[in-house]
Amino acid sequence: MYAIIDNGNKQYKVQVGDVVRLEKLDAEVGAKVELNVVLVSEDGALKVKEEAAGFKAVAEVVKQAKDKKVIVYKYKAKKNERKKKGHRQPFTEVKIVEIAQK
């Protein structure tokens, strides 16, 4: 059994026991979070839309952290114009505990 969950305009295929990095969630480490389910595959049958709305994916927050730094460097040739910026995207790592009906 697997499910497709929705988080931060992205979709992830998950099964029970998977550890997934999601967009930052407002939850403490160790807390349980309920995720939005878009599609469920159960015994080879796909359930979408209204059928999938009856399911929920429960996940446990493993850690809150930041990703590796991404460097953005802009310059214009022959103009002595340079800009260097760095960005670290925050994320939440969760472990899928169960996929069940509401």
Q: In what range is the share of β-strand residues?
A: over 45%
Biggest beta-sheet profile: 7 strands, antiparallel
Mean pLDDT: 94
Indicate the low-confidence ranges by residue numbers: none
Report the span from N to C terminus.
16 Å
Q: Determine Rg (CA atoms, Å).
A: 19 Å
Shape: elongated
Query: Which class do the helix and strand fractions yield?
Result: mainly beta
Number of strands: 9
Count of separate structural domains: 1
Tally of alpha and pi helices = 1
Secondary-structure element pattern, one letter each: EEEEEHEEEE
Helix content: under 10%
Structure, described:
It is a single chain. The protein has 102 residues and is mainly beta. The chain has one domain. 4% of the residues lie in helices and 68% in strands. It has one helix spanning 50-53, and strands at 2-7, 10-14, 19-23, 32-42, 45-48, 55-66, 70-76, 81-87, 90-101. A hairpin with a 2-residue loop joins β4 (32-42) and β5 (45-48). The radius of gyration is 19 Å and the shape is elongated.
Question: What are the defining features of this structure?
Answer:
single chain, 102 residues, two-stranded antiparallel sheet, mainly beta, elongated, seven-stranded antiparallel β-sheet
Brief account:
Helices cover 4% and strands 68% of the residues.
